[in-house]
């Protein structure tokens, strides 16, 4: 009996039929997302589910527009009927993704089930970067104009800050505290809404469309510094949903004042804005020294979680004038010096290569996973 059999059978005595069906659907969807093509027989072998159970779940997913038949499996013997291959259907269901983590603008997109933008819009913000809920409602309303409401799987909203369910508990960037954004948008449009932290959103995009495995740490450099951690394919959110707020760890109590109320927080020293300000009047050598110091400081701050969790992969995203070879080489040198040992596999720090729309795509992926997991 496979591990899938044990999980399903053990839970069957306590779970309702709808719970079991939802679990089975989640298992099958994860085996196809984002780009795997498998037959019903393949899915049965990989999950341990019966042919009838797989057929029932797949039939529902075909009707919903989650998957489609995209061809036929190879038949080496040339005998018998070839099984139809299933894959994620990117033609029918749509997701609206809104990114509130960017400076000076709100970005929005209609995406397919892989988070690939089909249509994009932006709303420019004023110099104070203030975001009103009405602006979000307006953008969603514009994006859904040409969509059939029955084909909208949900709305994903990406926020820089602490998120718990549909509540933005704290966002120093937006100046928000305990804003129930999810409920507000859900009432307005009557579709499911998922609010997700920007670092987690970007991490999900790297996980499924980049070079990451099941365990890694992801850090975004922008107005702030945000970190997300994936362990066994599970994002770590923490007891108070504030895991990853490394930018607001004070590393110099006499340092610059931070909007969070403390002094010397990491993001006051190595955020994109802070570094560009320090480099503004420097020559090439001076700018390189600033970036080199930022890379070393970042690695020093990350050494504890890397050692504690035994993480071998650290991925960093940010603009190329900041997250460049000078930054990465300095960070790698520092990592090697402070974490290297005979029992710790070398931690490699690398730049995210996925490209644009990291957070927008991650917002869409969060909606998909929320829907599939019920």
- Biggest sheet record: 5 strands, mixed
Uncertain residue ranges: 1-12
Rg over CA atoms? 23 Å
Termini separation: 27 Å
The CATH class designation of the largest domain is: Alpha Beta
- Strand % is 15-25%
If strands are numbered along the chain, what order do they take across the biggest sheet?
Answer: 6-5-4-7-11
CATH architecture level-2 label of the largest domain:
2-Layer Sandwich
CATH topology of the largest domain: Nucleotidyltransferase, domain 5
Shape: globular
What is the CATH H-level superfamily of the largest domain? ATPase, nucleotide binding domain
Please state the average pLDDT score: 90
Number of domains: 3
Total strands: 16
Describe this structure in words.
It is built from 12 helices and 16 strands. By secondary structure, it is an alpha/beta fold. The protein has 3 domains: 3-88, Arc Repressor Mutant, subunit A, CATH 1.10.10; 94-201, Nucleotidyltransferase, domain 5, CATH 3.30.420.40; 211-351, ATPase, nucleotide binding domain (Nucleotidyltransferase, domain 5, 2-Layer Sandwich). The strands form 4 sheets. A 5-stranded mixed beta sheet has the order 6-5-4-7-11, with helices on both faces. Strands 14-13-12-15-16 form a 5-stranded mixed beta sheet, sandwiched between helices. It is globular, with a radius of gyration of 23 Å. Mean pLDDT is 90; it is low at 1-12.
